Task: structure prediction
Amino acid sequence: MIKIDRLGAVVSATIFSSSVLAAAGSNTADQSKSRIIEEVFVTAQKKTESLQDVPVSVSSFDRDFIGDLGSTDVGELVQYTPNVKFSTALGYAPVLTIRGFGTPPLGRGLEPSVGLSIDGVFYGRSSYINDAFFDLERMEVLRGPQGTLFGKNTIAGVLNFTTRDPDFDNSGFISTAAASYDTVSVEAGSSFSIIDNVLAGRVSVRYNDRDWHVHNTARDNEQNHVSDLSSRLKLKWFINDSSSLLLNAWQSKQRELGLILQLKKATEKSLAVFREHDPAVEADAYNDTLSMDRDTFSDRDTRSVNLKYALDIGDFGVFSNLSAQVIGGWSEVVSPYAIDGDFSPIDFINFGTDEPDYYEQNLLEIQFTGSLPAPFGLGYGIDFISGAFASQSDHGVSVKQKNGTGIVDYTRAGAFFDPAPSLVIPLPTNVNPSDDGRGETIFASTEVDSQSVAYFAQFDWLLTETVTAIIGLRYGEDQRKGRISAGRSATTVAAPVVTGQENFDEIIEQSGYDFTPKLTLTWEATEELTLFATATQGFKSGGFAAGVFNNDNLTFEPEKADAFEIGVKSKLFGGSLMLNGAVFHTEYSDLQVRNFDGRSIFVKNAANAQTTGVEFDFFWLPPIPYLSIGGSAGFVQAEYIDYLCAPAIAGTPSGSGDPSCYDQSNDPTTTILAPSFQDLSGEPLSFAPEASGSLYSNLQMPISQSGVNLLLGVDLVYQGEHFIDTDNDPVATQEATTKINMRIGLKSDDNTWSIILNGKNITGEEESVLVLDQASLPGNYVAAALPFEPTWNLNLRYEWQ
Result:
């Protein structure tokens, strides 16, 4: 009898699933036979299906693979999927793109481009992502627009988390780890029976603490100490044989003291002035030092409570296998932060929240799934999912910026010079260089109330025994009302010069609708080969500017996408190899981008863009005992079709740009320091590597008769060159990286215990996740750089049943 092995690694669009390495627990004779990859199930279409039957480009990671990696961060996992980039190294400015598109960091007020679903509940902000990353059953990455089933703001894709449910077996686990940079991690979860076969619970916790030891030479203290504490409680009531009620409540607290933006490049003039305040200033993003006169931090508190009622109705009228689900939920995220806005030892721009940023949502969703007979006797029947979704959210941003102290020295360092006519802007006459920093404070506030309702349906019509047509429809309506204001506490000219600040207070309303259809055809050519083709649309809401100091760009319009994809899912060599792939093309209209003109950050629509590419991944159980091999590769060309009025690179002469980019408010003939523009039409999007790939191998073999296995693994992860700022400045180029990760460990044959040592980035590759212009200093840049030295993680895990 052929042994069916479980997959314990990544299901990257095919399968990289759970305990592929369980094969290592069998004897050599069994291992020499053909091995078969066991079927993996996902909820990529809001119902449980085999991964190979889902006509979507999807990757999945199960808890065994996550445990073997010793991973506590989503970014470590998605690097094994093609055409996905994610990092939360800069806490208040996460980076997340799929197939080249996503919400840029620092895009305050922007809705996400990648949707987030946790245990079937939709969350309206990417801020929640890492907060749910514990006690996981599975994580899925859906690539491409997913608007029909997941709704608006999934224009690039969806991250879909499933955490472990309660059971009556009193199962549980505890995992502890010690790693480089004084990292300590603890994660645990346990189910318990309250009333046998009626009521069960599960409680889980996670604690992480690490210190990257970035030294602030201006204040002589350590920066970037990060800790988080998260917990979750689930209670599941099995009301009867056909219905259940699940309570899911979780919370997370993260504290990040000291942000990692380090000076990357600076003019000699700037360095000379900076060194008057701190002789140790250096322009090196990878020397683990920075120089800022103010302490910085970024905190995040999240809470969520939801209820899910499930009912199996059975056959009802023309419906068969009918079931219903009702989901109600509340959540909030609160995020205070403080930034040294000039990133220098000069006390000049001190920026942060006046009141913490907040986002609060309430939602209700009703779903029905079931089957219908074939209409007019055509085909073999229809499977469907349909429902309605309603949400209400409040979003607030309140920021303040203290200016004044150090403005003279900051000007001596090169600020406020127009490089074309070498014009010096007159300095405020009432600013005392020895001021304590409270001489002038500017503030901005945005409060938005949004309401949404949507109706959706998807029909899988089996036309023949091998051909299925999938028709999806979603209609939604949005209404939002916001109040946006800005002001200042003094009447100096510093604020208007530094930030373009204006006093205003406006109430704005916006409404609209979206219609996102989907058509997919699948053909099961053989039992081992399925082809699919999809045409769909995506939609991302418009919105209001958040935390801006002038009223030049207070609103932005919705973003839309037309997407086309052809894919293949295959199982070859007797089921020992899974190979999946897709080619795709997506056109985006009214793309929303984050801009920085050297004085302020704002959001606007940037004409049109497109992405074209190919991606594939595989998992293979070769005829070599105990060995498994997997990998993925993605190639994408994401570029602006037309973007005539893109922000210019810092240092471009004031007023440079196409005449159509100017109006009365920014006329370069009448405006001091008028903005500059560049034409990025045909140029690549930022945060969009053209190539990405991974290759990994695992060997798990018995080393004793007592059921102890040796685990060996080597991974190679590649990321191509790309820009990490939105103006495509050559200085903001992240070079291609090839990282090698390794692991060695011992595991029990029944997976009850393991001890694994992981080495990451053995090659010492240098990587930054964001580059910014230093405020008002053309030629100066700061970067958020990751540690480049190899890191080590020793993980001990024990499970009980």
The longest strand covers residues 350-372. Residues 1-32, 418-438 have pLDDT under 50 and may be disordered. Residues 268-277 form the longest helix (10 residues).
